[in-house]
Design brief:
Distance between the termini: 36 Å
Strand content: 5-15%
Structural class: mainly alpha
Helix content: 40-55%
Strand order of the largest sheet: 2-3-4
Radius of gyration: 24 Å
Length: 633
């Protein structure tokens, strides 16, 4: 790696021209709170756990010790896995953090944050790259143990690469190393695609596939027609990967001003659109479903004879929560096209994206009850279908005698719909977006944004559950369109609530509030988890039985969160520096999940009891508890 050249590019493109003084930062409550988190992340959140330190970021920190906890590895020692608890780095699950830190340097002119991102990427490019494919050692089945500086799989396949709903920070990647980023993206396409006409792929690829980077884009390009209905051999073509492929290809085509990757990226979105329901225009959840029923989906064929239900054509139960992430990923590609002057290439696709978003919400969202239905792709409501012993779905938590609950409308939906509104260029769909946003705001108890974008909104400043980053993102999208000062004022109010409720005053880290309730139930008669419906405080008491009165929230918290991104969105709207606001591709409270083994890592008596309770499992996996299974001083 040419570090000098990389640093020059980073300073030119990611460090603001004016370096703000300490006083200037301190006077802005949102930038000041964001800086507190950023300083903790770059000071305490990087690897110093093995014999050789690296620039990689840990996944979690204890907000009192400011050290990373460990957890038991997935891969058995007999299969080559570590024989000790690992301190995790998951590069694909650091993308929000990396985007946040880069934007901190843009806003403040302080290069430390962008350089920390640069150093972590250089570490990946130098130490964790597969030479045959150019792929980096990350994805849903890979992790890095910072104790040994070694990448490990989760045991389901030693060379299983899965990039799905990740949308990496390619623009920064490219400034660190144009050559390695280009090879990485080409490696993604070459290892995934099994047929370049139909865009057929499986969600799992092989890190060691040999890639000829000179021939990746040089395939015959034919019209989108004669597409197969099913996979050829049971491949799992979950749709999130298609959006990741499109984002990577179009971004590379913009950064290198190369028409070919942009063309192929456009093509895969055109193929997805061609697979939408012909009546509703709603996009599928798999590109090509397996040629057999999976998970009991024949249940729907029996109940709805004309539904043609298969795994591509259901948006049910937990899959509902995937929709806004998919939307944000596709809109991220459209944003790249607008930013780099290539929008005409995606104009027709954008029209179909608007149709997909709006028609899905029309079919699934009930504005009166403010909830989401489980639906088939043709729009049929299947929420109340009661499962029987003979006809039960599996894989979504269904049980005989039960039916799916209506799903709560997560704040992610607000952000996705609002971004769709901002990017929409057609008057008719834009009016539909606004009406939908108005219904969403009223349904959530946030108030009324008015009949149109020029109206004076009346927000509810006493909204009980308004301190959500997704709501802030949504308001920032609206503000970028109408510049309404009341929208900004309410956004600031929600930002202050996020800081008050979630930011740890000592460390600057963010932790879920004690009175927040756990996941809503997905089934009417059955809970998917024994902890559904209870508060975080109740969960901490139940799991850890602490006598400490202040131990009502987790001590171990994640770094790859979106609350700091929301604070920068507010700051960017206040200053009018919209181009510096970081993008977000993953929102939600899942990042704040409590992992018992990590939560008690620094409490040796509890950790010893935990290992004793799990001794049979630990032994069956081939592990032996030793002194290095406990944190050092």
């Amino acid at each position: 790696m040419d570090r000098h050249a990389a640093r020059n590019r980073i300073h030119e493109n990611w460090v603001g021209e004016k370096k703000l003084s300490q006083k200037e930062i301190q006077e802005d409550e949102f930038l000041s709170a964001a800086r507190k988190f950023a300083d903790t992340a770059i000071t305490h959140g990087r690897d110093n756990y093995g014999p050789e330190n690296s620039a990689l970021f840990v996944q979690h920190l204890n907000r009192e010790t400011l050290k990373a906890p460990a957890t038991l590895g997935w891969l058995k020692p007999a299969h080559g896995g570590p024989d000790h608890p690992v301190i995790l780095s998951r590069f694909e699950r650091s993308q929000n953090l990396l985007r946040f830190l880069a934007s901190m340097s843009l806003f403040t002119g302080d290069a430390r944050y962008a350089e920390a991102v640069m150093d972590s990427m250089i570490c990946m490019f130098e130490d964790y790259i597969y030479p045959r494919s150019g792929l980096l050692a990350f994805g849903n089945h890979m992790s890095i143990d910072l104790v040994e500086g070694q990448a490990y799989s989760d045991g389901r396949g030693s060379e299983q690469f899965e990039l799905q709903e990740t949308f990496p920070f390619y623009e920064f990647f490219h400034d660190v190393s144009p050559e390695k980023t280009s090879r990485f993206i080409k490696g993604i396409w070459e290892t995934y695609l099994r047929d370049w006409h139909s865009m057929r792929y499986n969600r799992h690829a092989n890190f060691n596939t040999r890639v000829d980077i000179e021939t990746v884009w040089n395939r015959p390009l034919r019209p989108v027609a004669d597409l197969p209905q099913f996979t050829q051999g049971g491949e799992l073509s979950f749709i999130g990967l298609a959006y990741d492929l499109a984002y990577s290809g179009f971004t590379l085509g913009c950064l290198e001003d190369d028409l070919k990757p942009r063309t192929w990226a456009t093509r895969i979105l055109e193929v997805v659109a061609a697979k939408s329901d012909p009546e509703t225009g709603i996009w599928p959840m798999m590109l090509y479903p397996p040629p057999f029923y999976r998970r009991g989906l024949e249940t729907y064929v029996g109940a709805y004879p004309n539904s043609k239900a298969n795994e591509a054509r259901v948006i049910i139960s937990s899959w509902v929560n995937s929709v806004p992430i998919h939307v944000l990923g596709v809109l991220g590609t459209i944003e790249q096209a607008l930013k780099h002057g290539h929008y005409d290439q995606l104009r027709k696709v954008h029209d179909k994206v608007d149709q997909w978003i709006l028609n899905y919400m029309q079919a699934a969202y009930d504005p009166g009850a403010h909830h989401l239905r489980s639906i088939l792709l043709d729009g049929q409501d299947v929420t109340d279908l009661v499962f029987t012993e003979e006809a039960t779905l599996y894989g979504w938590g269904a049980q005989p005698g039960g039916s799916f609950r209506h799903r709560p409308v997560t704040p992610t939906f607000f952000a996705a719909v609002a971004q769709g509104f901002r990017l929409c260029t057609s008057p008719g769909p834009r009016a539909r977006y606004w009406k939908l946003l108005r219904d969403l705001c009223q349904g959530a108890g946030l108030g009324d944004i008015g009949e149109n974008s020029k109206a004076i909104p009346t927000f509810n400043y006493q909204a009980k559950d308004g301190a959500e980053d997704g709501y802030v993102f949504a308001l920032s999208e609206i503000y970028r369109v109408n510049r309404n000062p009341e929208v900004l004022r309410f956004m600031e109010h929600l930002g202050r609530e996020i800081i008050r409720r979630r930011q740890d005053p000592g460390s600057g880290l963010f932790v879920v509030e004690a009175d927040r309730r756990q996941n809503s139930q997905a089934l009417k008669e059955f809970k998917q988890s024994p902890h559904e419906g209870i508060t975080v405080r109740e969960l901490m008491r139940e799991k850890f039985g602490s006598n400490q009165l202040d131990y009502d929230r987790p001590k171990v918290v994640p770094l790859n969160i979106t609350e700091p991104l929301a604070l920068l969105a507010i700051h960017g709207c206040r200053t009018g520096e919209f181009e510096k606001i970081p993008s977000w591709v993953s929102i939600g409270m899942a990042h704040h999940a409590v992992i018992r083994e990590q939560e008690i890592w620094f409490d040796r008596p509890k950790l010893e009891n935990y290992y004793e309770d799990r001794k049979d499992y630990i032994k069956s996996r081939g592990f032996v508890v030793k002194e290095d299974w406990f944190p050092g001083e």
